[in-house]
Structures are given as structure tokens and as C-alpha cells.
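thought: fold this chain, then report.
action: predict
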Amino acid sequence: MKFKSWFLLVLLFLVTGINAQIKNPVKFKFTINELGDNQYEAVLNATMESGWHIYSKDIPEDTGIPTEYKVSGKNIELIGKFTEVGKKHEEFSEAFGGNIVYYSNSAGFKQKFRLKDGTKPGDVVAEITYQTCDDRVCLAPNTLEFNKQVTPKGSVEETEPATAEPSKDSAKTETAVVNPAKGPVANTETSKLDPKQLKIESINFEKPLTDCGVASEKVAENYWTYLLLGFIGGLIALLTPCVFPMIPLTVSFFTKGSLNKAKGKRDAFIYGFFIFLIFVLLSVPFHIIDGIAGNIFNEISTSVWLNIAFFIIFIFFAGSFFGYYDITLPSAIANKSSKAEEAGGIVGIFFMALTLVIVSFSCTGPILGSLLGSAVTGSANVPMLLTFALAGFGLAWAIIFGLLALFPQALQSLPKSGGWMNTVKVVLGFVELALALKFLSKADLVSKTFLLKRELFIVIWILVALGLALYLFGLIRFPHDDKKPKISITRKILGVLGLGFVIYLVQGLITSERPKLQLLSGILPPLNVSYFHDEKDGILGMHPEHDFFNAVELAKKEGKPILIDFTGYGCENCRKMEEFVWSESYILPILQNDVVLASLYVDDKEELPEDQKTKIDLGDGQVKKVKTIGDRWSLFQQVNFNNNSQPHYVLLTPDGKVINTPVSGYMPKEDFKKFLECGVNYYKNNK
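observation:
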């Protein structure tokens, strides 16, 4: 009796959500529709909270967890296979090296069936296995059952929870019933799952031994990074031949062309503001497109043909920067804008700013195109990123024009126009070539041709960097270069930096237990798209324990703390942590030498022994099954740490005490390092 009471209390704690860390972002509704002619349809509709998604049944192998929907029961005969309904999204995952297919907001699963005996009722048992993820964490795979009864006349009567005929694979298990609203039901059999395999009595995750102050809250989209990138892009564009000569002419027009100097400076400031406003307004159509087409930018970023198109466009941009041709908007647009300047006043100033933006397009277009391509393929919230990037671009111009209007004497210190501006354009051309390869790589990965291996990508970048260095040293010329260019000290320094980048890239061609070129993570093809990759290499050369209790014994023997890594084979954010964070030179040695790593996979499909299988009745006709090793570690995580997200990291002493506050999700490298060092140092100083 004592064991029964303890287990029911643990399960009550599990499902009532005492701590908000246990997430349940998906709600299900189970219905049965009558189709006529003794045919019915078992429909399970899922509603997801904003930002969360579940995978489709059609997701490729070795990526996420595909959704499985099974219908069975007494007097039931299935018709065909189950189908999915809803808007299906497809997105390339760099962590998995392939596409992931998922549903967001809502999805439906349907299975047709008939009654074997049309004169008798049928008990319908629907079972769904699914995984829920957002952009930072994944939750453990979940299996739920729903029970209803259908009569030959087509009326639907809902049965009491857990009274349906048990399915074949669960016939030998008992059901522990917990209703979140009413508490445990007293007349149920106890579970056979050994509590020693679940509960660690010494664990108190709410009161760790120390506190490192490391937060694992969701990191907001880094709009300020794109603002900065746009600002830098705007400054670079100012140095091009299309824009730079316009600076002194325009500022002089405002400061000298008016008898009222104060009015001239005011108009120059208005001019700068309008430039800023025009660039911001360029992002408005993308907000409208996003509102109409929802996931259009995800579709763009994962489309093979559109990524190939971006590759071609960037090559085209590079040719323009090299001086082989010019990219310009139709002259009629510039002529109309220029004519509108005659309106005078504020309206005229606006059209002066618009004319500048239009006529400088041949130099700014490729730079803006690079920002567009980066935002479209780098985030789901493309419109806001573009707004910040374009705002930064316009802000750079507005500040320069505004400051020079305020201090016109500074115009005398500006460098003279000349060949150096063409050098800037050519350098940008090499940058465009390098960026173009990123789009070709994504097309290669999405199509699963895997022709552009990581090493081949690096070799091509080495050739581009060498070409840049040779150009800067004057050994290569382009159409608009001087026949006998003077190689300035600045060009020589940049050339040396280019050679240094070549040396840095060469490291990526040398096989090593640790990933190289971390500065280029997310740009290069994934580590597994390589001529040298071997699945038997483990995780960064490490072979973690996959059973917590084995890890405990090893930790006692070696005198080290345990790092529990609640993870999953289908957890994209877990792979990102391993590749982009664990692999850091200041983090990997800690994992290798100072802790016993226990990677517990909550989606491990290997089945538990029959006497350790169980069911948990969640009420409302929903039953959670615990039948696999993954189910066991998922329940272990929830019971002991009141958390069901992955990745989730916990540092424990060998006797089961939580050292510092656990952290969840994909997190910054420095924060993860701080989490590890704080816990490890505390353990070393107090063991």
C-alpha cells in the first residue's frame, strides 16, 4: 500500500503541472464522424501554442520524430492508412543536414474504419505518438490514447477514461490513473515500474547547492545584430563610386545653396532623415507578404531552386562589382524621381533622397541583396530582421549626411575620389562570390545530393580568399582598375589578412577529433556532410553513458560530478548544442575531463521489460504509455526535475544532489561555459 500511495502521488505531481517548466503546448480533441454505409472516421485534431510544432509522418529518417497515429479496438476494421490534414511546412535543418516536415498552429489526423458487425457497437482506441518542438527546445516524445464508443446507428457516446479494450502490445501492463482535476483514482492497480528507477530522493532541483546565475530563458531574435550589419553595410556602400562622390556635392548644395545657413543645415538633416525613411519603407512589402503567405520565407529558405537562384544572383552581383557590367534600375524611374524634385520644399527634398537611392542602386543593390539573402535564410522572423537591417543601412547614410551638414568644414578632410573606390567594389565582389557558395550548399543539402562536401566548400573558399589576396597585392586586375595601380599600405595589410584567412581555412581540411572553423559554424556544410565522417566516432570523440545509474557508479569511482544531458535522437537543438557549443575549445575539455557525461535519450525506441511497462491516465480519455527506454528517461526527467524539454542539462553529485540550477535549450556559449565551470568548481572545492 505504501508503494501504491507513493507512486500515485508522484504521478499526480507529474501531471498537475505544479511547476510551469513542464510544458504542454499541444491540445487534442478526439471525435468520430459517420461517413455512411457502415463507415466512420476517427479524427484527432491537434492545436499548438504559438511557436510550437509537431512533425509530420513524412519526416525523413534520422531527423525528428515522425507522428504516428493508430486506431484499433473491439469490432473495428481499418480502411486504408491514416492521413494528415493541415498546412504542412518544410524547412531545411542544418543540424540534421536535411529537410524537416512539420505542422504549426494546428493539424489533423484521420483514420477510416468500419464495424465488423454492423449490428453491434465498437470501442475505438486511438493512439498518437508525437514530438513537440519550438526554435529552442524539443519536448520528449509523447504517446497518448483516446477512447470512444460508436454505435451502428452512428451516434457517438464517450466512454469513461481507460475502459476501452487494451491493445495487444499493452495487454500485460496495468494502468495508474491520475486525474488532474479529481486526484488519483483509488481502485486502480499499481504500476510495476520500479520506483528506484524513477525517483532520486536526494534531488531538490528548486534548491541547488549553489547558484551560478545562469539563465536559460529563450533568447530573443537578435534584431540589433541585423541593425549593426545594416549599418556596416551602409558605411561600406558610402565608399563605393556610386555614392561617395555624391556626399560633398549634396552637403554643399544644402549648406551653400541657401542664403539662410540654418535653413540649409535643417534641410540637410531632413534629407538624411528621408534617406533613412526610404530604406525602412523598402521593408514594408515583406511585412505584407509575410501576412499573406505565412511561412513563405521558410519555403524560400528551403527551396532548392530558389537557393540556386540566389546563388546565380550573387554570382551576377559579383560580376557587377568586378566591373564587367552595371546593374541599374530602369532610367524612367530615376527620371521621374528627379523631375519630382522640382516641387521644392519638403516634398522636393524627399524626391532628392529618393533619386539618390535609385541612382546608387548599381552599388547598393548587391549589398542590400546580401542582407536580404542573409535574413531570408537565417530566421523565421524575416520581415522584422529586414526592417532592422535596412534601418541600419539608412541610418549610416543619414548620420554621415547629417554630421557633414552640421560640420561642413569636415568635407575638406574627406579623401578624394579615385581608384580606391573601385578597389572597395572589387573586394565586395569577392565577398559576394564567397556568400554565393552558401546558397549552393543549402540547395545541395536540401536536395540530398551531398555533392558539395564540407572539405570541397572550404577549398573553394580558399581559392576565393587567395584570389582576393592576389588582387590586393596587384597581381590580378579587373576592367576598371588602373593599368599600373599603386599598391597602398592599406591594400597590403588587407592582402596579408586575406592570406591569414587562407591559413585559417586550411585547418578545416585537417582531420581532428574536434571540429574546426567554429567562426564559420552555420555557413559551412554540417560536420556529417564530409569525406571523413564516420558515425562510430561518437559525439566529438566522446562516448557518454546512456544509463543514469551506470553513470552514477562511474562518477563514484572517478570522483567526478555527473552532467545529465536529457537529449533525443530527433532533437535539432540538441545537435546544434553539440556542434556549435560543446565543440568550443574552452568547453569541450570540461566535458571530456571534468564530468561524467550521461546522455539520456528520451526518444529511445527500445522497449522496456514487460514488468516495467505502465500506463498513466491523464483524464479526459487521454492515456500516456510508458513502454520504451525513452519513455522511462522522459518520466525520470519529469519526476525528478519537473521538466520535459530537451536539451536539458543538470549537474549532480554522485550521491544525487543538484549542484547548480539546471539549464534548458540552445543557449549562448559563454552561458553554458559559466554553468559548467560554476558547478564543476563547486564540486571540486566541496567534495
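thought: worth noting. Residues 47 and 106 are 5 Å apart (CA to CA).
final: C-alpha cells above.
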